[in-house]
Amino acid sequence: MSDFLWGVATGAHQTEGNNLAADWWEFEHAPGTPIAEPSGDAVDAYHRWPGDMDLAAAAGFTDYRFGIEWSRIEPADGEVSLAAIEHYRRMIDGAVGRGLRPFITLHHFTLPGWFGRAGGWLSPDAAARFLRYVEAISPVLAGVAHVGTINEPNIVAMFAATAGSGMSALREGLPLPDPRVTDVLIDVHHAARTQLKDAHPTIAVGWGVSVQDCQAEPGSEDVLNLYTRPRDEVFLQASTGDDWVGVQTYTRIRISLVGGEPVELDDDTTRKTMNGWEFYPEALGGALRRTARIVGDVPIIVTENGIATTDDQERIEFTGRALQSMRAAIDDGVRVDGYLHWSLLDNYEWGSYAATFGLVAVDRATFERTPHPSLNWLGRQNPTVTHPDAPVHSSTTTTVLKET
Length: 404
Fold this sequence. Notes:
Layout: E1 5-9, H1 12-15, H2 23-29, H3 45-59, E2 63-67, H4 70-73, H5 82-97, E3 101-107, H6 113-117, H7 126-137, E4 146-150, H8 153-161, H9 179-199, E5 204-206, E6 208-210, E7 213-216, H10 224-237, E8 245-249, E9 252-258, E10 261-264, H11 283-295, E11 300-305, H12 312-331, E12 336-342, E13 360-362, E14 369-371, H13 373-379, H14 397-401
Parallel strand pairs: 1-2, 1-12, 2-3, 3-4, 4-5, 6-8, 7-9, 8-11, 11-12
Antiparallel strand pairs: 9-10, 13-14
Helix pairs in contact: 7-9, 8-9, 8-10, 11-12, 12-13
């Protein structure tokens, strides 16, 4: 199997369903919550993961990113669920048995409710509590190649800066992350990396940062860094000692100068995805280039990239163009070690099921999985595998990556 990662990504809370002990479950059901609909059963991936992995493997993917849910492992302070640990052990073994390399995320936005009520990341013993969780699950990580500590820590810090608003606070632009939470997350990431490497020296540890293609409008070039530095670059700089850094890119953000401050430009004339982001697939290449300038020799993995759409041909167009921009960055010397598409499944997008990112549609009533043509299209473009019957399109990775 090639060292290049070619896979799909999922999130624990977004797919598993009924994470009753999670702080997000409490937030979804709190009186006056801004959440449009709770996660509920999600897509029942907690029970249906074998079939989901079968779909990914059959399509030609070699890597499968999924999360371990802390609130299942430790539903009450200090009480570790051995049954939950065994569940995730079965998932890891199940992926390996299907020829999929498990790519594990330890924290994907959700926290145990008890941890959140005690102050969350700003509690005095936050790092110690997280490291206790990492220690508890450490035995099941033996043989896992890649582990991500915290998913999109910059977005986590933005949530903290807009407490009580959830994902809705990000719809009008990216707020400044809470600087206290930023510092804590960086310290926790470094401590978790050390703990993981001590227990499993061969594990490659990093984290996936939300990095969009930020472009300055004419006349605003001098203030672009004022926008990007606290929102993503400080987190990328914290990755310089990691084995890899993840880039999670979906769109372009255009920055204009207003009153001496950088602000996001909202252009109603641009083509938009169904969740309101600009349709700009080439953002991936721009984000990779900017990341490489910051992290230097640290290998980059695209840990998320995709589009919310009801038109699968649009998904293929977007993904093909994004991969072309990735190939152009590689040709210019950017080291990219893998691509993980978001997402395998339509799932819970932090307040609603309306935005559909999946290569596979899911019936919310029956949980039936229906693969879109894009699943096999993308899977069979695996740059490390030859598929004689796969058509060659100028927008696919067969062309984009195999020319090296």
